[in-house]
Design goal:
The protein is α/β, with parallel strands linked by helices and 281 residues long. Helices cover 43% and strands 14% of the residues. It is globular and about 55 Å long.
């Protein structure tokens, strides 16, 4: 069932006499000039999460809320842990942290438990986000800045994210917990790019570029509406997550290998290009 807004009036029509409500809706992946205002982020990610929790209160056994590591923030140089004090740096991150807190308050004292999953970058075929932008860049044969070898990123494949959500719905010990699920491997961005390219037999070239220059170019071009530039600036920030909450309490291990998932990003495109190449020959 589709609802026009994440508010009580719209959500009251959704059957919530269920075991688990997975709240995955949110506002993200927007680039200049279409960046939402702070109020829009808060209305959808903050107040929307509160409304879902309020309507699910005492009607569902559990609410599993998909949040983001952006709710924690980080300075781009340190590793993020479950217990890292939240200091979100963006309006998006602030709205996700607000959603967590409002949902928890809405369920406090009820028979409905809450589990919060703070995901890093989620990637997969046709998934939105910075990793997909990177894959499209590689598909066009464009070079990767050399500084990408110094930026390490925790990410999670769509299949692993789904598996983490299911595990979070089933494990009684996770009630009230916050977890940061991620792939088993944490790669630098250049290795990510080369792995994506290898899946479609596309060689990845590098071009000398210091990180400081890339940040300036990313912000400049991003302000002009060049999504790939804005995405690159974000992707090339160091962001490493370490958290064993799901492994410790739910014996969860990511079922999909990150290398296999990254190689699959452009594999379909490679198959689609093949008939054209044969006919041209």
């Amino acid at each position: 069932m589709l609802v026009p807004e994440l508010d009580d009036a719209s959500l009251s029509r959704v059957p919530m006499e269920v075991d688990t409500v997975f709240h995955l809706a949110g506002l993200a992946h927007r680039f200049p000039p279409h960046v939402p205002s702070d109020d829009e982020y808060e209305r959808v990610n903050g107040l929307g999460s509160e409304a879902v929790a309020r309507v699910a209160r005492n009607r569902a056994r559990r609410v599993v809320l998909a949040s983001s590591v952006a709710a924690i923030g980080g300075d781009g140089t340190t590793t993020i842990h479950r217990g890292t004090a939240p200091t979100p740096k963006t309006a998006y991150g602030r709205s996700k942290l607000s959603g967590e807190r409002l949902a928890r308050a809405a369920l406090d004292g009820s028979g409905t438990s809450l589990v919060v999953l703070r995901f890093p970058a989620i990637y997969g075929v046709d998934a939105p986000g910075a990793v997909t932008q990177l894959a499209r860049w590689i598909e066009r044969g464009r070079p990767i800045p050399s500084c990408a070898r110094h930026a390490r990123r925790s990410m999670i494949a769509v299949a692993n994210a789904v598996d983490a959500l299911i595990a979070s719905s089933q494990c009684a010990s996770l009630a009230g917990e916050v977890a940061l699920p991620h792939d088993r491997q944490t790669l630098d961005v250049l290795s990510v790019a080369r792995t994506i390219g290898a899946g479609a037999c596309i060689p990845v070239r590098t071009v000398p570029c210091p990180a400081a220059l890339l940040r300036v170019l990313g912000r400049l071009l991003g302000s002009l509406g060049v999504a790939a530039a804005a995405s690159a600036e974000r992707l090339l920030e160091h962001s490493v997550v370490e958290d064993d909450t799901l492994a410790r309490l739910a014996s969860w291990t990511p079922p999909v290998d990150a290398t296999d998932a990254l190689r699959a990003l452009l594999r379909r495109s490679a198959h689609e290009r093949a008939p054209t190449a044969r006919s041209a020959a």
